Request: fold
Amino acid sequence: MKDRIIIVGSVALDTIQTPFGKITRGVGGSSVYSALAASFFAPAAVIGVVGEDFPDDFLKKMEKRGIKTDGIKKVPGKTFFWKGKYSWDLSTAITLDTQLNVFEKFNPSVPEDLRSSRYLFLANIDPVLQKKVLEQMASPKSAKYTALDTMNFWIESKKKKIGALLPGLDAILINEAEIRQYTGEHSIIKAAKKLLKTGVQTVVVKKGEYGVGCFSKAGMFFLPAYPLEDAVDPTGAGDSFAGAFMGYLASEGKATWANIKKAAAYGTVISSFTVSGFGVNGLLNLKKSEVIKRYGEFVRLVHFEDVKI
Ligand code: AMP
Reply:
């Protein structure tokens, strides 16, 4: 049995507008995208909260994919709501509205049988909640691999809380604008080095359609994004990248530098499917065989030979 990945993050209803269409109150949230992406590689479990307006049948769809949802509590009130739009270049989301709703009073509780899981993904949510989940794992260091994602909203309001989590982490996944905002460095390389100094082992910088950079003591590694003719909605690309990244590492059982590179490639491939559909649709209808096929295409796309001088 592969290790189960525990994921805490937002479970949301999203209203998204892009130049290619609109979705109103569709299911989303960082932990939903991450868990769906991870489920192609390893079983996952989500810790979160939803309100009475959240569709039960969606939780059943997650269970069908091997994602445990008993850590998602349904409470009176409204589900976390995010409204965003993208302009023509689909690069950065413009947040129009964030309503924490039931997340405001949420006190996460990791079910007893999941506390000894060895993979923990602190997906994008209030760093105070991320910490509470981290503390409930059998012992924070019994987790074999702990990674964290965050965003501008939390960097603006709770930067110190994020900083306190960094030293014990195996990886932080963060986008280009956010790492600049967090470190005050314009150079991504300088910014990543600054984060490595805090003690986090690997820094993964997501650069949207320009790909991703991985940084650790072992060195640097860069990948382009998978070239897509029809990107329609980038929401959740970062979260699905992270889910696939964690899922692949959990399926391999060892976070060597070589596996981290392959995990980044799987993250790239899965997120290319995410942006091909609105909301979670690009992931919900996806088959593992399509993921494997695109991974092969991606390897061929980025491969080139050294020259003999
Ligand atoms: P991504 O496009 O990968 O950065 O993630 C988009 C998802 O993040 C959406 O489904 C939103 O519901 C969720 N989201 C937006 N703002 C926040 C926030 N402040 N905290 C947690 N999740 C958020």
Observations:
- The pocket of adenosine monophosphate is lined by residues 10, 12, 14, 28-30, 82, 98, 124-125, 151, 153, 235-239 (CB under 6 Å).
